[in-house]
Amino acid sequence: MRELLCNSTYFGVLISLIGYGLGVILKRKFKKAVFNPLLVSIVFVIAVLLVLGVDYESYNNSAKYLSYLLTPATVCLAIPLYQQLELLKGNYRAILGGIVSGALASFLSVFALAKLFNLTHQQYVTLLPKSITTAIGMGVSQELGGIVTITVSVIIITGVLGNIMAELVCKLFRIKEPVAKGIALGTSSHAIGTVKAMEMGEVEGAMSSLAIAVTGLVTVIGASFFANLM
């Protein structure tokens, strides 16, 4: 049975989709942030692999086809941005300022924590792209000499935490402006945060979509500079 699953072409895709579908059902039923579909699917896949004794490499070989959809899915986020183009033109200074500030905050927090916990250079650069979408973050990590698999994990964790805590943070700091909410989510939590932004409203979703692209560009440029600081 184990050999059959390890050699299956679509086993990884199947359990990934089942896990995500289960997460969607739980989120709709209980309406709790902790039942984020991506988080549920991660836990579900890990549990299935442990129970069936399937190693990660075998799973990844059959689940890699899902990653091919990552880039076109990210590009599709341009649609809500186009629909809010006039709003973007009227607030471009504040929007760009917010995105750059968010990217700098990400870099500085990683640098401070790396110093605090005495991380190696490789570990440090692995964490630098934590707040950008996986498609860009993997390339940045590889270029800087980081551990790509850990970078992917950190990016996912960052996005899931942003998705779960978004409403609480906005309520705690009394952030009511839709543009501010969208920029904050897209800058700090990339595509996973953008899903939450779209749930909040069209403006939030559009601004978050913009933040993903611009933050990715700022990170590609800024990561090279910050990588040399340690």
Automatic annotation (TrEMBL):
- Keyword terms, alphabetized: Hydrolase, Membrane, Transmembrane, Transmembrane helix
Main subcellular localisation: membrane
Membrane-spanning segments: 7-26, 33-53, 65-82, 94-114, 144-166, 206-227
Give the record's membrane topology: Multi-pass membrane protein
Top-rank taxon of the source lineage equals Bacteria
Task: Answer yes or no on keyword Electron transport.
Answer: no
Q: Which GO terms describe its cellular component?
A: membrane
UniProt-listed InterPro entries? CidB/LrgB
Q: Which GO terms describe its molecular function?
A: hydrolase activity
Subcellular compartments: Membrane
Q: Quote the protein name from its UniProt record.
A: Putative effector of murein hydrolase
Source organism (scientific name): Acetivibrio clariflavus (strain DSM 19732 / NBRC 101661 / EBR45)
